Request: fold
Amino acid sequence: MKIGIIGAGAAGLAAAFDLTKKGHDVTVYESAPFVGGQASTIPVGGSSLERGYHHLFTNDEAILDLMEDLDIYDHMKWYPSKVGTYTSGKVYKTTTPIDLLRLDAIPIIDRIKLGLFAMRVKRIKDWKLLEDQTADFWLRERLGGMAYEKVWAPLLKGKFGDFYDQIGMPWFWSKIQTRFASRQGIRQREMLGYPDGSFDTIFDKLQASIKSKGGEIHISTPVIKINVVDDVATGLKTVTPDGEEFDRDFDCILSTVPSFSFPDLVDLPFEYKERLSSVHYLAAVVVILEMTDALTDFYWMNIADPDIPFLGLIEHTNMLPKEWYGGNNILYMTNYLDREDPIYALSQDELLDLYLPHLNKFNPKFQRSWIKATHYNALSAAQPIIGTNYSKVIPDHRTPIKRLYLANTTQVYPEDRGTNYSIKMGRKLVDTILSDERQHWRNWT
Ligand SMILES: Cc1cc2nc3c(=O)[nH]c(=O)nc-3n(C[C@H](O)[C@H](O)[C@H](O)COP(=O)(O)OP(=O)(O)OC[C@H]3O[C@@H](n4cnc5c(N)ncnc54)[C@H](O)[C@@H]3O)c2cc1C
Reply:
């Protein structure tokens, strides 16, 4: 089969890998001048570093299986993470369950409730029973008190902004399952994974394998139209890097573009389009600082304080060696926000002016002179907002146009989106496409 894939992120390349391995003729089109999508990298201090901080959890089996298939499993290394939470004007260590007992921003009874509550959610086996409630309602009703007010409510508001009270409870359930799965040992320390050489190690090997089996990957080549004849997808119209429009026929098309841009490529029936537009996306605005000194000694800092204009600090080199980045400390300052939010429109310098005065709250010694370089990245389709009863309205991978399939992060459920789930989805779509093809020929003969 001749298959056209739109997007060279984790989903598109994982699908292309399996399809080329099975002998199919695959062409991947990517609008950006690089592959990797949201998990792509930039060069920093002689290494590659993700535009948005990335790590893996120990139960991210699909990406580990793929690394095994690519013969790079031994490149995955596991590191203990150190987590802090900033609340009530102070940084608290919240790495292990014991640390929660020392979180004196809330009364001891609420600290105990916080830990027991997480255990209770972890024991829930069937997330479907939680589907009709929001995480905010569940937390307010069943946990409540200062543990809700001081810890979970600010985190939900920080992560989802105005949408904080719309997030379905399965999101919270899956986060708790993942975090517990990554805890190890008596002290229940969290271990996080990071591939040697960055996520590029996986994308480079995927590209090499796809190309070695005759697959094509065209970067800087956006798809501008999916050609359809009599409700059947027949090909793609792209713009080549030198600006030429180019049509190519395919037997089947897999699109991995976000739901908000898919309808720009193809006319879709009202009901399917409604499903796509019912999921709102938050964008991520990420500033990376290369610094002479470490700001804190935490890898991951939750910020449960509405007066701080960013949601999290991720100090990459508190988990990974700074020698990889020319000896500099790497700090991500991150925000998830609506694309209409004024912060999304700020320039890098404006963002720095807004953010940097707050860094002294984490380390009074911090000075601007520590900063040797800055990088700014905005990712428009970073976080889909998945509400209640989503299993009833999730868009089908098989679109109403025959031979046209969709695989994007709004179709990852009940888990939160992540490279692991995009890889799993891309590979699952290969099975769906090939089984539909077999069925098609059975019906024909
Ligand atoms: C800030 C941030 C931090 C994250 N941290 C983690 C983490 O720690 N661990 C983890 O596992 N995951 C993390 N993720 C999530 C993870 O990166 C994504 O879930 C995953 O990479 C999505 O892969 P995808 O292929 O589904 O989509 P994408 O990566 O979005 O790929 C879609 C591709 O389609 C291309 N495209 C769009 N339109 C067109 C067009 N018209 N023509 C051609 N190409 C087109 C895009 O350029 C893009 O490359 C994070 C995401 C963000 C934003």
